[in-house]
Amino acid sequence: MTIKESINKYAKLLQNITHIPNKEVEILIQYLLDKNTIWLHLNYHNEFTEEKALEKLVQKRAQDYPLEYLIGKASFYGETFLTQEGVLIPRPETEILVEKSIDMLKNIQGKKRVLEIGTGSGIISVMLALLVEEIEIIAVDINEKALQLAQKNANKHNVQNRISFIKSDLFENVIGEFDMCISNPPYIANDYVLPKNVSYEPSNALFGGEVGDELLKDIINYTSKHNIRYLCCEMGYDQEKPLKEYLKKFDTKSIEFYKDYAQFDRGFCIEFKTK
């Protein structure tokens, strides 16, 4: 069986899982052969010798198991990051959070100190380290597996000297002063039923409490209390109204809520009045 015939055969098993079944089978073949897209297209009519391994991967993907876990990587902000089971998969929407935070950091002259709460695979901190000059980042998480993966991603992108990864439950082990706090925290209500593909990801990176916004409120409170000028966070699509109400008790200079690529409410950025 040729590569092209294998793609056509196994894509049929993924038609109800993804809108790009042929493309996903190609990605799995590239992963198995350690080849790029150009090589694949030039060798469509060559014999494919890894059908058993491909079948195994496709059967797992057919159960809605995430493609990013199968191939061990994901694209974010035009870069490739390592992924693994037990750590949240990067989402394109988080690119907006990175962009918003970069815009705010431009207002700070000289060295910038940033605290990331819940770093996961490290994508936010790594991109900030790549894109912002004179930056020092403390990135925390409660998940040891996530911290190990984040360190690998920092090493991969050669920014390990600009980020310190620390195991901490929110701010528990955080010391020092910061210009910005940034976070994509768990913000889904505990009783929400996840889509099957998302259910493979770690629950402690998804569920934020009975209502869902509890951790967001903790982060807002901490940022204000510790005189941190800027805060950028992701949030749930239905959380703008309660968070706007909660923010009335804080002394803020500006508050911006923003939408994602699908025009759902997705996050907010705050400038606090600092002392």
From TrEMBL:
Alphabetized GO MF terms: nucleic acid binding; peptide chain release factor N(5)-glutamine methyltransferase activity
Span of domain Release factor glutamine methyltransferase N-terminal: 8-72
Enzyme class, first EC level, given as a word: transferase
Residue stretches making up the Methyltransferase small domain: 106-190
Catalytic activity: L-glutaminyl-[peptide chain release factor] + S-adenosyl-L-methionine = N(5)-methyl-L-glutaminyl-[peptide chain release factor] + S-adenosyl-L-homocysteine + H(+)
A Pfam family matched in the record: MTS
Single GO BP term: methylation
Keywords assigned by UniProt, alphabetized: Methyltransferase, S-adenosyl-L-methionine, Transferase
EC numbers on record: 2.1.1.297
The organism's place on the tree of life at top rank: Bacteria
NCBIfam families hit by this protein: hemK_fam (TIGR00536), RF_mod_PrmC (TIGR03534)
Protein name in the entry: peptide chain release factor N(5)-glutamine methyltransferase
Protein source organism: Candidatus Marinarcus aquaticus
